[in-house]
Amino acid sequence: MPAAPAADPLVDALVQASFATMAVLTKAAADADLSLTQLRVLAILRDRRLRMTALADYLGLEKSTMSGLVDRAEKRGLLARAPNPDDGRAVDVLITVAGAEVADRGAAEVARALAPLTGALPPADRRRLTDLLVRMIGTPLA
Amino acid sequence: MPAAPAADPLVDALVQASFATMAVLTKAAADADLSLTQLRVLAILRDRRLRMTALADYLGLEKSTMSGLVDRAEKRGLLARAPNPDDGRAVDVLITVAGAEVADRGAAEVARALAPLTGALPPADRRRLTDLLVRMIGTPLA
DNA sequence: TATTGTTATACTCTATAACTATA
DNA sequence: TATAGTTATAGAGTATAACAATA
Hints:
The structure is a homodimer.
Chain A: H1 9-31, H2 36-45, E1 50-51, H3 52-59, H4 63-75, E2 79-83, E3 91-95, H5 97-118, H6 123-138
Antiparallel strand pairs in A: 1-3, 2-3
Helix pairs in contact in A: 1-5, 2-5, 3-4
The structure holds a DNA duplex.
């Protein structure tokens, strides 16, 4: 009998695939001199304008953490703060033109770096995997 | 035409699923008062004894980073250092009984917390997804 | 009073560079 | 000389707590 709890093969595969994917994403971010979180923020703001709190909730971070992240990205000219027109307390965060360019290059690099992984499967299997992942993600976490 | 590069549906699904999985793993680690990296180290050493360098390579970290990680885990009684019998320069890292217990509880918590995600699919789809992920991961990265 | 965001503080994670000890 | 590991240092990411401004 194994000392460790019996493993669920799907859990194992999902965790391993996630670590492999995160390694690729982290590397792609580092190539752009960004942390994974920074690249993620840029990707999220690529086509949205969000308040600090909404962004923090989206990422599962504390608002004080968001302040630091936005501070650093703002200093680099990738993001900008703007007052929220409807709530005097709120601060909107926007991506700059330079930030959008970095986000686009990052997304392209992610797709390129992930290709050896995703491209390993024949087209029919790629479609099946995509469908299964989408259906799995679609289920909200408890 | 979209301003952002055209997205690959599989890349998108994989990235989203990975972030969702990482969020669960990070939360499970935090519940045990560990960082994700610490929990991962414990999981790796659950049934192995590795030298510092091997561990660092495995995790994709610098050796100095490993020193810090092992220092903190050792201080908490979760890991221990031992001289390598074959190489006077090398240091082996071992998991302690307390560390193994924490690792087991963490693994169980990960499986439990991931259940809403993995359990969303019927058994046949779970098997298909597992198979596809395993085949995808099996391909070494470029 | 409650919410939004910032600031102060502390700790972990991470890397680079310089160092010691062994091979 | 080359490799294994530690230490010093620095910066980013993260959280908690206290605070100011607005609702």
